[in-house]
Write a structure and sequence with these properties.
The structure holds two protein chains of two kinds. Helix content of chain A is 21%, strand content 20%. Chain A has nine helices and twelve strands. In chain A, strands 3, 4, 7, 8, 9, 11 and 12 form a seven-stranded mixed beta sheet that branches. Chain A is elongated, with a radius of gyration of 27 Å. By secondary structure, chain B is mostly helical. Chain B has one domain. Helices cover 81% and strands 0% of the residues of chain B. Classes of the chains: A alpha+beta, B mainly alpha.
Chain lengths: 327, 200
């Protein structure tokens, strides 16, 4: 025997007026969703929301395996910034001005073949192949703090060799007082160089005594791997007591000079960036405070330390200098 | 058959769309995909959303005059309130998350750093506009006075663009774009105003 389904309660019966307007209802629903999608996606595109890039899959640096990576006296034991953040949050305007752009765009850079031209006040100007350079020195690991001029910081395990070792081998003359570094100039490999936001190629420099300091590193890798393009492959400078912008990337030229090099950021905005670029919480950037910084991964800010915490090692280099004027 | 308000889908559609940046941010925040510096990312997205919505608000009247669109008038208040909503979240993120409610540091920032001063001034100017956005307020103030008050939105827009200019390190292409939009909107208004004045 079949039982009839119970009649639905009257409250569930669609009112006739609504039933008659169902087409209009559906049309309005579709138009609402369409408007929301169009307006919302336009807004999202304008504010630049997009998923972060993936971390690069880098080959291990062959020599690194043979090297003891125990803590050297300069290493910090602070928690290291994850590989993902170190390789996807970069300032490398040659590949775009947004932090995620180098990770997205730096695949066009060809770090091999690569040569470094040594010029200026040296006994013997020469052009060195990057692989020859890697034969000369065995990379060692250095875990350094990196403080960006934009008031954020990281802790990065670099692989590299002291710049001092290289300089001794290059034999600068007695006239050499400064070292000038130049990045590759090739808009095909570095599409950001098509925009004249900075004077290309990027140029940085150090006083010779700063360059010879044992903390100053020529980096060829990080986290035990070959340096990713977005971090300045195949060779970059790391000066841990200076703002990150001093750490010039993808170096093709090293020139020894008698006079102070004209560096890119100090040319672009001389009132905001000086030649020295030493981390100094007492001297603010004209537009923002340098007293505190956010360590990437932290929620709260921490106090910025003079010379980025390396004052014991390097403060003597600047004895008697007015650090407010020589910023 | 009784017809409802014209374009009944317009307001709910814009409402949902205006929430998209916030919704995406919340989802990304929970998934941990806001990038390496999520606090800076949140501040940037909220600030830029506020600026875009403020420009959209200011574009409503010129669009009506230029193209004869009447529908823009019906979403103008909502766009303006969303701009205020995003700028408030932007400021609260700076206050609470970025600076950790450190009153000394915040006051120093507002007083000493022009880029923060102008951003804060824009927020201050927008606040009375948000609170007098109701139809009742228009009646209470009288339309002329209400209109003059709400022209402050242009001043706030100008300050917001300056805030953006002083915020970027060197590449001013984005702030320049918003300055151009603001200037165009002002010029359109000026043109209509000039054309109207002699006939009076």
């Amino acid at each position: 025997m079949r039982s009839l389904a119970p009649e639905p309660p009257s409250s569930e019966i669609t009112p006739e007026s609504l039933y008659l307007r169902r087409r209009e209802f559906i049309k309005n629903a579709v138009l609402t969703v369409g408007t929301a999608a169009a307006f919302g996606s336009g807004l999202v595109w304008l504010v630049g929301q997009r998923p972060p890039p993936d971390a690069p899959d880098q080959p291990p640096l062959a020599e690194a395996e043979t090297v003891a990576t125990g803590p050297s006296s300069f290493d910090t034991d602070e928690e290291m910034t994850p590989y993902q953040a170190v390789t996807t949050y970069n300032n490398f305007y040659e590949f775009g001005v947004d932090k995620d752009e180098p990770a997205r765009n730096a695949h066009t850079l060809q770090p091999r073949p690569w040569t470094i031209s040594v010029e200026g006040e040296v006994a013997r100007p020469q052009v060195i192949d990057i692989d020859t350079l890697l034969h000369w020195f065995t990379p060692e690991q250095r875990v350094y703090r990196m403080r960006c001029v934009e008031a954020w910081s990281m802790v990065i395990p670099w692989l590299g060799f002291p710049l001092a070792d290289l300089i001794k081998r290059l034999e600068p003359t007695g006239n050499a007082k400064f070292v000038e570094f130049t990045t590759l100039l090739d808009p095909k490999q570095m599409p950001g160089q098509r925009d004249p936001i900075l004077q290309w190629p990027y140029v940085e420099g150090l006083r010779l005594d700063e360059a010879l300091h044992p903390l100053t590193l020529m980096a060829v890798g990080l986290y035990g791997k070959t340096l990713p393009n977005q971090n300045g492959a195949p060779l970059r400078l790391v000066v841990p007591w200076k703002y990150g912008l001093k750490g010039i990337k993808s170096i093709v030229k090293i020139r020894f000079t008698a006079s102070q090099p004209k560096t890119t950021w100090s040319l672009a905005a001389p009132n905001e960036y000086g030649f020295y670029g030493n981390v100094n919480p007492a001297v603010d950037h004209p537009r923002w405070s340098q007293a505190t910084e956010r360590r990437i991964g932290d929620l709260t800010r921490r106090k910025t330390l003079p010379f980025n915490g390396y004052a014991d090692q390097v403060a003597s280099l600047y004895a008697g200098m007015d650090l407010r004027r020589n910023f | 058959m009784a017809r409802g308000a014209p374009l009944p889908w317009l307001k709910p559609g814009v409402f949902i769309g205006a929430l998209a940046p916030l919704a995406i941010m919340v989802v990304e925040g929970m998934q941990g995909t806001l990038g390496a510096n999520p606090i800076a990312e949140i501040e940037n997205v909220l600030g830029l959303a506020a600026l875009v919505l403020l420009m959209a608000t200011l574009a409503c009247t010129p669009a009506r005059r230029l193209f004869g669109w009447t529908w823009t008038a019906r979403i103008r208040r909502m766009l303006g309130l969303f701009a205020f909503f995003y700028v408030s979240l932007h400021f609260l993120t700076y206050l609470i998350v970025d600076q950790g409610l450190d009153a000394g540091r915040i006051v120093e920032d507002i007083v000493k750093r022009p880029f923060i001063t102008v951003g804060f001034a824009a927020l201050v100017l927008l606040t009375p506009l948000a609170f007098t956005s109701t139809t009742a307020s228009i009646r209470r103030l009288g339309y002329r006075r209400w209109q003059v008050l709400h022209q402050l939105a242009y001043v706030a827009g100008g300050l917001a663009v300056i805030h953006f200019f002083w915020r970027v390190k060197i590449d001013i292409s984005q702030p320049l774009l918003y300055a151009a939009v603001l200037a165009t909107l002002l010029l359109v208004r000026l043109a209509f105003w000039l054309r109207r004045t002699p006939s009076r």
